[in-house]
Design a protein that fits this description.
195 residues, Nucleotidyltransferase, domain 5
């Protein structure tokens, strides 16, 4: 995607009055939502987490992003425990209002589908115990909300997240995907996404 197209899409999804600061945030027009959103990109060995805050006047700040990398030596059940604990820790560390997560995609391999479902379940169990709202979006919708293209690559998503939030560096793939999931929820609240 060209820089010009990316800038036009950025302006479209952020609303009429866009003002960018150099402190890792962006003003996105004047809507009414304020609060913290936790984005999660779940997988067994490399799960991305991101916490964004929508502040007064819709300024978006990225407060935290991390990748939970789990060793192949760690067994399956222990991995699920780590996913649960990390999700729970983030929910206790920030006053999260909503958790936004990528929906399970169709996979032909039933074993992979079961593993992904279990990983999502471990994260969702922590969310359920915290009594926090959960929203799920298809990978296509998340990509479209960030880049304007449902078939965007991980690199394109990462570059747009970097540009939208004026970050000092491009985030690692799992962290940028988690941040994109959180941003997708915010943009959806603002009815900026096509149906």
């Amino acid at each position: 995607m060209s820089t010009r197209r990316r800038n036009l899409w950025t302006s479209k999804i952020l609303g009429l009055s866009q003002k960018v600061s150099r402190q890792g945030s962006v003003r996105a027009g004047f809507y009414d939502f304020q609060g913290f959103i936790l984005g999660i990109d779940p997988s067994l060995r490399s799960t991305g987490f991101a916490v964004i805050e929508i502040c007064d006047h819709q300024k978006i700040n990225l407060h935290a992003s991390s990748t939970l990398k789990l060793s192949p030596q760690l067994d399956f059940v222990a991995c699920l425990g780590e996913l649960f604990k990390t999700t729970q820790h983030l929910l206790q560390s920030y006053p999260v209002l909503t958790v936004s997560m990528e929906q399970t995609i169709y996979v032909q391999n039933s074993k992979i589908a079961q593993i992904l479902g279990s990983c999502r379940g471990a994260c969702l169990a922590a969310v359920a115990l915290s009594n926090i709202e959960t929203k799920e979006y298809t990978p296509r919708r998340i990509k479209k909300s960030i880049t304007g293209m449902g078939q965007a690559t991980k690199e394109q998503v990462a570059k747009m997240v970097y540009q939208l939030l004026q970050l000092p560096r491009i985030l690692p793939p799992d962290e940028s995907d988690a941040t994109a999931a959180a941003l997708c929820h915010f943009f959806s609240l603002k009815s900026l996404l096509p149906s």
